[in-house]
Amino acid sequence: MENEPLIDNALKTELSALYGAESRHYHGLAHIEAMLALAGEYREELGDPGAVEAAIWFHDAIYDSRAKDNEAQSAALAERLLADRVDAARLKRVSAMILATATHQLPLFEDAAAMRDASLFLDMDLSILGAAPDAFDAYEHAVRREYDWVEEPMWRAGRGEVLKAFLGRAHIFHTEEFRRRFEPQAKLNLARSLEALATDEK
């Protein structure tokens, strides 16, 4: 059945060990748990909750701030560890959702329910952008710690480009629900963070 969970306790333990690495200050288990909580809130909206849960668990399983292929590596891990648990079409959807976190552009599914699931999944991943200011600031600080090997001028320039890209979109979030719930605060947070980056630069 499509709504059967793909992630059993043994797999949760294996993945939790990856998320528990000392180098993970934001992309750790707390991020996964926050997304799972949102998935629980929106479960009735999901066509395949099990696939979304699997994508959540695997999407940052491989994370090295120096690497450029974390999403591809995480998708490959999901394909390997879930291969005997799920049919090929469903696994392809899970993998495509994971890969989409590289750009946060929607993967092109022919199935409307799969598109909806991917939209909600990507919005859950970005929900921290619309968090209360103190939580958002803690997130920004944690990400900076993950990139502590990057010199400050390069960090300010690179992070600024990332934040400007999100602000430059017609909408930060794909779904109406998340736009209503998170977008106004996300725009305030991003603008404030950009201003801080520019102030620090002077």
Task: Present the secondary structure layout.
Blueprint: H1 9-19, H2 29-41, H3 49-58, H4 70-82, H5 88-100, H6 112-126, H7 133-146, H8 152-167, H9 176-201
Short description:
With 202 residues, the chain is an all-alpha fold. It has helices spanning 9-19, 29-41, 49-58, 70-82, 88-100, 112-126, 133-146, 152-167, 176-201.
End-to-end gap: 57 Å
Percent of residues in helices = 55-70%
What is the CA-atom radius of gyration, in angstroms? 17 Å
Oligomeric status: single chain
What's the overall geometry? globular
Largest sheet: none
Element-level helix/strand string: HHHHHHHHH
Which residues sit in consecutive blocks of at least 5 with pLDDT less than 50?
A: none
Q: How many helix segments? A: 9
Number of beta-strand segments:
0
Backbone structural class: mainly alpha
Kindly state the mean pLDDT as a whole number? 94
Strand content: under 5%
Number of domains: 2
